[in-house]
Design goal:
8 strands
Length: about 550
């Protein structure tokens, strides 16, 4: 805080200087060299102040988010006698939440900076950066200027925890991308685009509902041959989405003849790049810079910054985080309906491992009855799978693929393409959110069971796009307002209108470490999706102490 006060005092003196005559006399006595040096020092102090303000803003944002989640825990346990932790499970929930928010502050490193205005300082001189970039011998031209330098510092110094995690993940994913781009005769350096797009998270979902490691929108994904249906979303498949991204970039390069422009078009679309070319009269990225959408301007500098950090992380004292992905993977062609639970219980592969290797199967089901699909498993389990293949397919088949379960998945899939879940940010209000998604305020309130226009940071809102209009709030947000007493469901419900529409066979109290999938396994014929829909839950995040009503199959 003392540092902040000193910096503010310096800025005050800079903005409100001494009387004009005194300033003229002072300037007259100083050489141009001294004035330039003083100006640079003041600019550095202003940059430090900006960074400090950004840091405090991020702390406030995390505090608001933590406060929001704490309120959710109390609301979910409103049937308790008094506010505050009443048992060990709820106490564990609060402790876990505090820990997760501490971890989240590290996972969101690098996201709080306004890269259009901030300028970072580093002990590494420009000459070293230039030599290192040249030593990388990239097929793609790597520009260098103050903007690129800021992104180099961002990736190599300002986000060490995230970078080390990405370095660990890259050991598994980069060979897949390199093989893909090599197959199409394209530069392998394009693999670093996945770092910018998703931080190598295969299940990443953007605010605009782009999904996967390569952040494909629904229509673009389909146009490049990716399957999206009730069971499969190949945008989440690291292999197939990388292949689609390679084909998209190949087409973009044919259009522009320049990799920096092709990379930019991946972010904003070819149409926006062509428009920028017409306005600037040039095909050089830096001539187009001011004519590109704001979020696209930093895309090429970020690409260079990420590429630099991945090549010189050792020089910046970073080491890759150990990756949990198996070193060797085998593929199985599946021609029948297959559930991850069948594979896990017969062959012994943990369900979580199957999900990590096959994130495209959104309900843990490979729908091989429709057409052949690929299942990736750790190589060490290949022999066991082949030896017990018949048993795998028949194990609990009637229970896991009951008509009710399959019908629920089909219905959920038909709505999923239309629905997004929006997390409220600082400065948001219903009118702004409604305008962004071309819906009305009354629609958002109806879908989420809101009785007022008040929102809180971190609150999640369900929004239906493409003209889909459910007649009532069939799926309510976990951050929505509490229902009125007249519509309040029985004790143990989470407070959704859908939760009271059917009869429950049991009420389950969530324990530490539970997942919806694990809970569903205890009730034959009931899936995790069934539980989510029955309780009006829009996210698979659950807290210890939460009471879930289990539907009848």
């Amino acid at each position: 805080m003392k540092r902040l006060i000193c910096l503010l005092a310096s800025v005050f003196l800079f903005v409100f200087p001494a009387p004009a005559q005194t300033v003229r006399d002072s300037v007259a006595r100083k050489s141009k060299k001294v004035l330039v040096r003083e100006y640079k020092a003041m600019a550095a102090e202003l940059d430090s102040l900006r960074a400090l303000v950004d840091e405090y803003r991020e702390r406030l944002r995390l505090d608001d988010s933590l406060r929001s989640d704490l309120i959710e825990i109390y609301e979910e346990n409103e049937d308790k006698i008094a506010a505050g932790p009443q048992d060990d499970r709820q106490t564990d929930s609060l402790i876990s939440l505090w820990y997760l928010h501490r971890q989240a502050s590290k996972l969101h490193e690098g996201e709080g900076f306004d890269m259009d205005s901030i300028h970072f300082e580093s002990d590494v001189p420009d000459s070293v950066y230039l030599k290192r970039l040249a030593r990388m011998n990239s097929y793609i031209t790597l520009p260098y200027n103050s903007k690129v330098r800021d992104y180099i510092i961002l990736y190599s110094e300002k986000m060490p925890t995230r970078m080390q995690q990405m370095l660990g993940l890259s050991e598994f994913y980069f060979p897949i991308f390199e093989e893909t781009f090599d197959r199409y005769g394209m530069p392998e350096e394009l693999k670093y685009m996945a770092v910018i797009e998703s931080a190598l998270n295969p299940t990443a979902v953007s605010r605009a509902n782009a999904k996967g490691m390569w952040q494909f929108m629904h229509n673009t994904a389909r146009s490049y041959g990716l399957t999206i249906n009730s069971y499969v979303d190949e945008r989440l498949d690291p292999v197939k989405s990388a292949d689609a991204a390679a084909r998209y970039l190949r087409d973009a390069y044919k259009t522009f003849g320049d990799w920096n422009l092709a990379i930019s078009s991946y972010n904003c679309g070819s149409g926006n790049v062509l428009k920028a070319i017409r306005r600037s009269g040039s095909r050089d990225f830096w001539d187009l810079y001011e004519f590109l959408p704001r979020e696209t301007r930093g895309y090429v500098p970020a690409f260079v910054g990420a590429m630099y950090a991945f090549n010189y992380y050792k020089e910046h004292g970073m080491t890759p985080t150990l990756c949990s992905m198996p070193a060797h993977v085998d593929t199985i062609q599946v021609r029948q309906m297959l559930h991850f639970q069948q594979v896990s219980e017969v062959v012994g592969i943990p369900v979580e491992t199957l999900r990590e290797l096959n994130p495209q199967y959104i309900h843990d089901i490979v729908p091989g009855a429709d057409k052949p699909y690929t299942l990736r498993i750790p190589f060490k389990y290949t022999g066991a799978f082949i030896d017990h293949e018949d048993s795998v397919y028949t194990h609990k088949a009637k229970e896991l693929f009951s008509p009710a379960t399959l019908e629920n998945i089909k219905n959920a899939g038909s709505v999923e393409a239309e629905r997004i879940v929006y997390k409220v940010k600082s400065g948001d209000y219903l009118g702004r959110i409604a305008a962004r998604y071309h819906v009305s305020v009354s629609d958002i309130k109806r879908w989420n069971g809101l009785r007022s226009n008040n929102l809180r940071i971190g609150q999640r809102l369900v929004i239906y796009k493409k003209g889909y209009r459910p007649s009532s709030a069939s799926t309510s947000s976990s951050g929505g307002n509490k229902p009125s007493s007249s519509s309040k469901p029985s004790s143990g419900s989470t407070g959704s209108s859908s939760a009271k529409s059917g009869e429950a066979q049991a009420v389950y109290v969530v324990k530490a470490g539970d997942t919806l999938y694990d809970i569903a396994k205890n009730y034959p014929g009931v899936s995790a999706d069934n539980i989510m829909k029955f309780n009006g839950i829009t996210s698979n995040k659950i807290h210890p102490g939460l009471k879930l009503r289990i539907p009848k199959p």
